[in-house]
Amino acid sequence: DIQMTQSPSSLSASVGDRVTITCRASQGIRNDLGWYQQKSGKAPKRLIYEASSLQSGVPSRFSGSGSGTEFTLTISSLQPEDFATYYCLQHNGYPLTFGGGTKVEIK
Amino acid sequence: EVQLVESGGGLVRPGESLRLSCAASGFTFSNYWMSWVRQAPGKGLEWVANIKHDGSDKNYVDSVKGRFTISRDNAKNSLYLQMNSLRAEDTAVYYCATIVTLSYWGQGTLVTVSS
Fold first, then answer.
1. Chain B residues 81-110 with a CB less than 8 Å from chain A
2. Which site from A31, A87, B1, B44 is most exposed, i.e. has the minimal number of CB atoms within 10 Å?
């Protein structure tokens, strides 16, 4: 199985901060990775697909980078509506696996 | 408007069975792989199973192999998850979703396995 190690598991940040979340894959997964945002009690929403492509309708302050085993989600200027939990998901091999999640909280 | 609406969740005892359904609308259901993803209370997301457009290929996470069966009926735009021999650790919100090409998710249905 491909393990996705996501860090940090939580962070505190202020509105306007730049935030970076990392996922490391236990083996190369090309760019077969998506990033999701989940707010409490809601279904996840995809922000980024194919590691770096912005999902339609998602603000441009979200960006993704990486390929192979290391991937990054960056929020360039954190907004109040961005406080949520973020997950990466690899779809290169079965079972599909999510990272453990990063909870972004208000500082 | 795309909609995925799950149903069939509820409270069951360990060892019992449950069948989840997901009704899709607003997109060409028969063109896409479909998945079930679950989330235990207070925990992260876990992919459970997926099925190819025509039902000819299915994949499962190890923890549900032999107990859960994913299926679909493209004529009814519906996805199913038959869950047998349920365990306490299967307690979760179950989401129906397209994951790779498109990204559509239902609102989830809660399955609670408890004696």
1. 95, 97, 99-100, 103, 105-108
2. B1
Cβ contacts of residue A37 below 8 Å, gap of 6+? A44, A45, A47, A82, A84, A85, A86
d(CA B36, CA B109): 11
From A3's Cα to the closest Cα of chain B, the distance in A is 12
B77 touches chain A (CB under 8 A): no
Mind listing the pLDDT tens digit for each residue in A61-70?
999 999 999 9
CB A28 within 8 A of CB A8: no
Give residues with Cβ within 8 angstroms of A53, minimum separation 6: A64
